[in-house]
Amino acid sequence: MFSNLNKLSIIGLILVLLISDAKTIHSGLLSFALWGDLPYAKNNDGYKTDDKINRLLASMNSAELAFTVFDGDIKDGSSLCTDNELGESSIALFNRVKAPTVYVLGDNEWTDCHRISNGGFNSLERLTYLRKIMFANDDSFGSNKMRLHRQGLLGGMYSENTRWDYGNIVFVGLNVPGSNNNKVTDQECISIKSVRTLNDCEADNAEYIARNAANIEFLHESFQRAKDQKAIGLVVIIQADLGFDLPETEAINESNQPDFDGYQTFKQALVAETSDFNGQVLLAHGDTHYYKVDKPLIDQAHLLKNFTRVETFGSPNLHWVKVTVDRSNPNVFVFEPVIVAGN
Questions:
Q1: In sequence order, which residues have a C-beta less than 8 Å from that of residue 342 and are 6 or more positions away?
Q2: Angle subtended at Cα 143 by Cα 95 and Cα 284, rounded to the nearest 5 degrees
């Protein structure tokens, strides 16, 4: 039988634990991981040895994460776009992550597959295959799953566009890949390094127009959902670098040049939606493999104060980014680059 003193000590301990839990709940802290642009065969990421991949996965699996998001490029841009490379191997990798894991498409797994070094596939056929294999149900990957909302019918067009809510934040993953969003100019259509024909390029450009419109529509719906729910933030995850890092000069904005003009209407929509939203907006992407956090929109004279960009690591640097949502922080999103020892 406990003495009165022991009883008081136990009650005091319980109160401390309850207060601590209440503070945690009130602060709204939750963390998620961002990673992508790996594994690359040309850099021996998990091919000749699994050490780098194993260390990366162990690092994420040891953290308390609500979920992870892979922001595209499940292989390098000069390896084969085979069914196994794009489907089975990727699913096996994502399911080794303990937390629910969301996959966002990149250019190396479809828009660039016309290259001879990639096997000379038809890019749109590869996109169709990925939709059927990778987005066939409403669940995420990972050993633990979470339910997702798809824009299109399961396994069909735009099923890769995904939305979910977590901790008063709306998250949306969109198929906005590198290689200029699959918009092809006449000058770059035919190449000795590609099997692409003029008809293929016309089909690619038609695909770009339709998907870009679907992306903007889903982006608008996601912002409206965030407004309706009075969300404190919205996170957009894509693969492509939209040209934020090109130097701007007084005479010309380089991000409007032909290599990046496939992103202009999407970027304009993102600016418009962010400007009309009271919460914080985070854009996460991969593509160029350099970790950075900044505020690149719109320009020096017209800063979007509630917009932040984070770019994730990529091969050969197999690390990840931890993002913590802190309701007590006016910026909402707090970033920590997690450098994996040995990688």
A1: 51, 52, 55
A2: 65
Residue 27 phi/psi, 5-degree rounding, is -70, -20
List the chain domain ranges. Answer: 29-338
Residue 15 host element (H or E): helix 4-27
**Which CATH code, of 3.40.50.970, 2.40.10.240, 3.30.750.180, 3.40.190.10, is assigned to 29-338?**
3.30.750.180
Which residue in this structure is represented by tokens 């979470």?
Answer: 146
What single-letter amino acid sits at 220?
H
328 within 8 A of 27, measured Cβ to Cβ? yes
The dihedral built from the CA positions of residue 198, 201, 207 and 213, taken in this order, carries a sign that is: negative
Q: Is the pTM of this model over 0.85?
A: yes
Per-residue pLDDT of the chain in tens (343 residues, 90 and over written 9): 445 545 545 444 444 444 344 344 444 589 999 999 999 999 989 866 779 999 999 999 999 999 999 999 999 999 999 999 999 999 999 999 999 999 999 999 999 999 999 999 999 999 999 999 999 999 999 999 999 999 999 999 999 999 999 999 999 999 999 999 999 988 889 999 999 999 999 999 999 999 999 999 999 999 999 999 999 999 999 999 998 876 655 555 555 666 788 999 999 999 999 999 999 999 999 999 999 999 999 888 899 999 999 999 999 999 999 999 999 999 999 999 999 999 9
Q: Is 102 exposed, middle or buried (0-12, 13-18, 19+ CB in 10 A)?
A: buried
219 secondary structure, DSSP code: H
Quote the CA–CA distance of 211 and 176 in Å, as a whole number.
9
Strand 162-166 and strand 169-173: the pairing is antiparallel
